[in-house]
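Lab notebook, design round three. We kept the backbone fixed and only want residue identities now. Task for the bench partner: fill in a sequence for the structure below.
Input structure tokens:
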């Protein structure tokens, strides 16, 4: 269930205020971003420019609303009974790593209350501050959007180096992650690169699950509403055959592969 943020007291504060997160929206009872039932905080701001972005309104780093971290903790506590054993709080985006230090503070507070933390990231940064955040992240959902540097640049406007670096770092500290892959016809479905992607991660012991997310067109109206030219307007959703062959391929390399 999504709801707007007008009901949250958010003063006009400096972006660098350590007490506030810049967020786009909140979801309660989320079941798509991590295990169990979760409160999902979608943060505002992203430096990728994925051609298929379903939330172009979350890209502007100056958009969204500033919300007190303590207010978010209070909301999580009110929902804690619904989280059960597996659930908790997920921070998604936008790109959470742009607010890494604030998220470390947020996750520390959630842990003080015994709430599980999950971070959904594109791996835009791989710095000591991000490594500190990793210590307080129970599960990393890492989107590795393309294994080939050139295709990654074309698809997202950014290199895949930090994403691959962050995956390697997470593996080196032995903390679990789920990898996510958006399957886009004509962009991320090249058999040789799908295989290279799987081969790159197959030996990772911390990868519990791989999620294949078929491209869809549900975000198109947002591009239109924002008067932005949507580059994938005529890109079809993946055919059943492509979804099944990708699932079959990834199943050869990973123990648990989920086709969303
Ligand atoms: S990383 Fe996510 S939020 Fe950022 S542009 Fe890509 S799809 Fe959109």
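Proposed sequence:
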């Amino acid at each position: 269930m999504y709801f707007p943020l007008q009901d949250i007291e958010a003063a006009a504060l400096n972006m660098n205020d350590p007490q506030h997160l810049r967020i786009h929206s909140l979801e309660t009872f989320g079941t798509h971003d991590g295990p169990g039932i979760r409160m999902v905080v979608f943060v505002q701001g992203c430096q990728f420019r994925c051609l298929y972005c379903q939330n172009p309104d979350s890209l502007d780093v100056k958009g969204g609303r500033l919300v007190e971290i303590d207010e978010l903790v209070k909301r999580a506590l009110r929902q804690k009974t619904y989280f059960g054993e597996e659930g908790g709080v997920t921070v998604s985006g936008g790109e959470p790593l742009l607010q890494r230090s604030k998220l470390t503070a947020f996750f520390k507070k959630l842990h003080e209350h015994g709430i599980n933390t999950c971070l959904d990231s594109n791996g835009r940064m791989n710095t000591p501050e991000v490594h500190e955040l990793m210590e307080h992240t129970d599960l990393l959902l890492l989107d590795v959007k393309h294994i080939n540097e050139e295709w990654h640049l074309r698809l997202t406007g950014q290199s895949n180096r930090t994403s691959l670096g962050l995956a390697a770092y997470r593996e080196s500290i032995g903390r679990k992650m789920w990898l996510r892959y958006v399957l886009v016809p004509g962009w991320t479905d090249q058999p040789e690169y799908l295989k290279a992607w799987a081969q790159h991660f197959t030996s990772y012991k911390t990868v519990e699950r791989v999620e294949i997310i078929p491209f869809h067109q549900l975000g198109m109206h947002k591009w239109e509403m924002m008067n932005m030219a949507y580059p994938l307007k005529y890109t079809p959703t993946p055919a059943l055959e492509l979804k099944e062959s990708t699932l079959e391929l990834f199943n050869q390399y990973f123990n648990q592969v989920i086709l969303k």
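Keep this in mind before ordering anything: The beta strands are 2-3, 20-30, 38-43, 65-68, 88-92, 116-121, 139-143, 177-183, 207-214, 257-259.
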